[in-house]
Amino acid sequence: MEDKNPPTKPRVVCCIGDIHGYITKLQNLWSNLESCIDPSDFSTALIIFLGDYCDRGPDTPKVLNFLISLPLKYPKQTHVYLCGNHEFAFGAFLGVLPSPNDGSEFKETWKEYEMNEEREGWYKGEGFENMHLQGRRRAGNHTKGIECKGSIYDAAPTFESYGVPHGSADLMKAVPDEHKKFLADLVWIHEEDDVCIKNEEGIKSCKLIAVHAGLEKNKVVEEQIKTLKAKDTRISKVEPLSGRKNVWEIPQELSKTPTIVVSGHHGKFHIEGLRLVIDEGGGLEDNPVAAVVLPSMKVVRDTDRLVK
């Protein structure tokens, strides 16, 4: 007797790590994903970019153009563009972050870290008077005791890729409106209710949470998600976008419902259970950009030599 409700094939989900201005790596990785995933599956895949598209590498405008072009080229795919800490700071400098929801001014975000202003050489040029802290840090001149490409964000290559020197207010005019809109529209977190992952027990259906750095382990998850969805710019430093040790583990409360937590940010490739950290490149020129494909857990890199 024919099964009237045959099992549906799990949707393919591609989680792509930090790109950091390397257009050739992105193009090669995309080509490799297209080569190793069944065409019908790839054409309808959920593609999650984990943030940090700019800085360190030389071609930020080309990377943004590539990302912006995907929905037209692959109309059946779903594309999720997460905000990384680098895009947060980029958007802060350009003035495209949403205003604080309590009516306060961005200069209120300076207070918590003002003891670092001189050491980090915060930006004091045109428009700084009411700029979010991270915008001022991004365009600053941080050179003491650490090797930086122009600031604590290694932002000089991005300024230069738009044809202006690091720290120049001219960047605000040089970045096209299409790129500003892309940065303004980035989501800080993404949730999916039914994502399959392959493990030793077979195929398992899970909830998925994608966020650039991770979720803080000692804060209520629901409150974190609410804050991230609201894009709360009153916060000086958004830990789920920029934290390290405090966002590495999956919060204990998520163990009640199997939940994949996928991030980039950490400069390493690490898979442990349902915690996926996909940032093998770390923005370094000689490192590959990596992606993980679900449910198969196949790892794909820009450096793979695949035969179509």
UniProtKB/TrEMBL annotation:
SUPFAM superfamilies: Metallo-dependent phosphatases (SSF56300)
Calcineurin-like phosphoesterase domain location: 13-185
Highest taxon of source: Eukaryota
GO molecular-function terms, A-Z: protein tyrosine phosphatase activity
Matching Pfam families: Metallophos
InterPro entries on file: Calcineurin-like_PHP (IPR004843), Metallo-depent_PP-like (IPR029052), Ser/Thr-sp_prot-phosphatase (IPR006186)
GO terms under cellular component: cytosol
Protein name as annotated: Tyrosine-protein phosphatase RLPH2
Organism: Nicotiana tabacum
Gene name for this UniProt entry: LOC107830778
